[in-house]
Amino acid sequence: MTRQAIVVGGGIGGLAAAAALRRIGWQAIVLERAAELREIGAGMSQAPNALRALEALGVGEQARAAGVPTHASGNLRLSDGRYLQRARPGDASALLAFHRADLQRVLLEAVPDGWVRTGAEVTAVRQDDDGVTVACDGVEASGELVVAADGIRSTVRRLLWPDAPPPRFLGRTAWLGIAEVAGVPGSITLGRGGYFLIHPVGRGRAYWAYVITADQPDVRYEDEKAEVARRVATWHEPIPQLVEATPAEAVIHIDICDLDPLPTYVRGRVALLGDAAHAMSPDRGQGAGQSLEDAVVLAAAVAAEPSIEAALRRYDAERRPRTQATARGARADGHRTTSTAAHRALTSMIRMMPASLWRRGIAADGNPTWRWRPPHLPSPTPRH
């Protein structure tokens, strides 16, 4: 008999979990609250650890075809255009940049037709020794396992972890956009109190993100594009050009938050995954990547352990220390890159670092986070 899971959330983490479970012979129902499947956030990069997770999910080739090499971590600049570090022509890139929708599509194509149900808002989760049931708009779905991949404001976390604190505002806000501008290399420009990130994302497009310090959350502007354009008007090209080339209605404004560390990612037969478990600031580019790792490790544990409870204990023991350490590092990095007081020290340190040492640090195995290797996902035993 085929084993059944329920995945709450149809974003990158939820689809990765469904694809991973399929790899080990399970079936899954993916419940997505939105009326249609779409990713918010415009663009992102994936590091070598995430790319290995995609390989383990069986979609590595498709992901590499959808992504674009980016040298953002090799091209560091000041707002007047001067380079602190510069990628050399022909340098290999450890990072691939994606439009979020492109990576989501790769994962969706790895999930069988009929597994994803949109417009499905979870209202209750009940479990006992035999299984777990999710109530959704008056309809119930049951299985052996629930994977909650429903984001930083997870309904499942609120229901089963009622004492967990809400998302924490990190004192920073960001504008994001996709511009129809071709041939733009990846870069990070460090200004006082903020930075501007650029990734090429294919098909003549570039993703940009402008991140600054903010005293309080939820401050919004009548014309968000005009506000960004005003703030970066004197910054080097192509920054003003990218903002100008982005449709006003497509400029996204978000506040940057993360989660306080949870004491466990599991409750009975329910596992939190991705942002629902360990939402982190984007400053290490690891939010989606850690979700992909979660999916592979969870499926490997389910395949290897004799019970769901044992599998989830293993998942929690393997994932919680790594993801919470990554979140702490991302929070610290974000403070350093946007702190006005630390700007001079940070840029001086980067400028003084030998280029060869900088390149070693951003190589595919240049740091412990990127060196992660996925566990093997065994193929299901054929049934006769």
Automatic annotation (TrEMBL):
Q: Where is the composition biased (Pro residues)?
A: 375-384
Q: Which UniProt keywords apply?
A: Monooxygenase, Oxidoreductase
Which residue ranges does the record assign to the FAD-binding domain?
4-328
One Pfam family, short name: FAD_binding_3
Question: Which species is this record about?
Answer: Nonomuraea muscovyensis
Q: Where is this region: Disordered?
A: 319-340, 365-384
InterPro entries attached to this UniProt entry: FAD-bd, FAD-dep_Monooxygenase_BioMet, FAD/NAD-bd_sf
Asked if Oxidoreductase is a keyword of the record, the answer is: yes
* Domain of life from the UniProt record: Bacteria
Gene3D superfamilies the UniProt entry points to: FAD/NAD(P)-binding domain
Please name the GO terms that the record assigns under molecular function.
FAD binding; monooxygenase activity
Protein's UniProt name: 2-polyprenyl-6-methoxyphenol hydroxylase-like FAD-dependent oxidoreductase
